[in-house]
Amino acid sequence: MDASILLPATLIIVGLVVVVLVIYLVLIIIALRRAGTHLENLAGGLQKIVEDSQPLAGKLGTINGALSQLHGGLSSVDGHLVAIAKVLKLV
């Protein structure tokens, strides 16, 4: 090959590589900005959940106590049903 052809060919190839890299970098920037927007929306949603669940803190003790009583009653019913099943020879 002639040396006068190599220099322009090299410059064209280097130019194409630079253009391709610039395009990929621009696409990466766009993707990161979109991801940032989605993260802002997610953070806002999580903050809303925290704010909406604040009133539950005072009521959880009451709910837990009621569930404990319910558990005791259901355990008693379960014991009675097992005893009935044994009498009827179902178990």
Summarize the structure in words.
The protein is mainly alpha-helical and 91 residues long. The chain has two domains: 1-55; 58-91. It contains two helices and no strands. It has helices at residues 3-53, 60-87. The N and C termini lie far apart (94 Å).
Overall geometry comes to: elongated
The proportion of residues forming helix, as a percent range, comes to over 70%
- How big a fraction of the residues is strand? under 5%
Global mean pLDDT:
92
- Structural class call reads mainly alpha
Biggest sheet character? none
Oligomer: single chain
Please give the count of helices: 2
The low-confidence runs, each spanning 5 or more residues with pLDDT under 50, are: none
Compute the CA-based radius of gyration.
Answer: 35 Å
Distance between the termini: 94 Å
* Extended strand count: 0
Quickly count the domains: 2
Order of helices and strands: HH
